[in-house]
Amino acid sequence: MKDLHRRLKQPIMRETVNIVMQNDSLLFVSRRKEAIAGYAGTAGTSVFWDHNAMVAAQLLEGRSPVDIIDHKDDTWAVISKALLRLYQNIRCYEDEEISDPVFDRIEPDLPRPLARARLEILEKHGRICDIPAVIELSEICLAPLQNRPVNRELFRKECRNSSWLARVEEYEPEAIRRALETTICRSQKHSNDSLFRSSMAALEVAELKYALDHRSSAIPTLDAFDTPATHEEVGQVASCVAR
Predict the structure, then answer these.
(1) Would the pLDDT of 27 be above 70?
(2) For residue 80, what are the CA distances in angstroms to 6, 76, 96, 167, 213?
(3) Alpha-carbon distance 94 to 100, whole Å?
(4) CA-to-CA distance for 106 and 37, rounded, in angstroms?
(5) What average pLDDT does range 75-88 have in this prediction?
């Protein structure tokens, strides 16, 4: 682990965490020694005490921290800072030609189920440029577990004052219904595409369904759609509601 420290360009963070590894993969991270103690001596696991938080950030290797870090203390506050520092250190290695993030904006009020769905996609398809989105989506998921509001300071400046709810409420339920119908049909055509394209198509459908559920009392069945949506209408609603 000492070798990981040498790769960092910026001064080492002072905050430390306790790390549990299993089969060379990060299993659990906590600031509380008592939360880690039970893993010591367990077959197949290794415990590392008081290691720099930057080490844990690198060991995540693109995985979502939501199910790995301790929710009962300030571990996330430390790890989120380390992830941001890691991003600042390695962003220069990103190929500029493929540096567009998967999600261009994450709203602090994005519903938690949608945040989890986006995290799952980033775990499989994310790149260096997606680290800020991983931090933001993880914050949305972790804040309720810690009984606190979302910390907007963990979001990029262009995201902090954005609102998923306000964006959805710009559209009448009928407009979202039309977009959903056509998006479902389009997603079926992507079922045999690459894993990324099919995953994004499924996510777009899920986000439109969630938006429709918010805007109306129930999601109608497909036979309730009377008029096909125009290409322009689908593009406008789907691109704004489901990013």
Answers:
(1) yes
(2) 20, 6, 24, 27, 32
(3) 10
(4) 36
(5) 97
Tokens of 70: 């301790």
The first and second tokens of residue 55, run together, are 């080490």
Q: Quote the pLDDT of residue 190.
A: 65
Measured CA to CA, the distance from residue 127 to residue 148 in angstroms comes to 29
The residue ranges of every structural domain in the chain are 2-160, 166-241
Q: What tokens were used for 40?
A: 């010591």
Torsion angle of the four alpha carbons 54, 94, 121, 74, in this order, in degrees rounded to the nearest 10: 20
| Sheet strands side by side (includes 45-52) | 25-30, 16-22, 45-52
> For the chain, what is the HEC assignment?
CHHHHHCCCCCCCCCEEEEEEECCEEEEEECCHHHHHHHCCCCCEEEEEEEEHHHHHHHCCCCCCCCCECCCCCHHHHHHHHHHHHHHHHHHHCCHHHCCCCCCCCCCCCCHHHHHHHHHHHHHHCCHHHHHHHHHHHHHHHHHHCCCCCCHHHCCHHHHCCCHHHHHCCCCHHHHHHHHHHHHHHHHHCCCCCHHHHHHHHHHHHHHHHHHHHHCCCCCCHHHCCCCCCHHHHHHHHHHHCC
Six-digit token string for 87: 């991003």
CB 76 within 8 A of CB 69: yes
**pLDDT tens-digit readout, 94-132:** 876 667 899 999 999 999 999 999 999 999 999 999 999
Spatial neighbors of 1 by CB under 8 A, at least 6 apart, are 48, 51, 55
Q: What is the pLDDT of residue 15?
A: 93
* C-alpha to C-alpha distance for 178 and 232, rounded to whole angstroms: 11
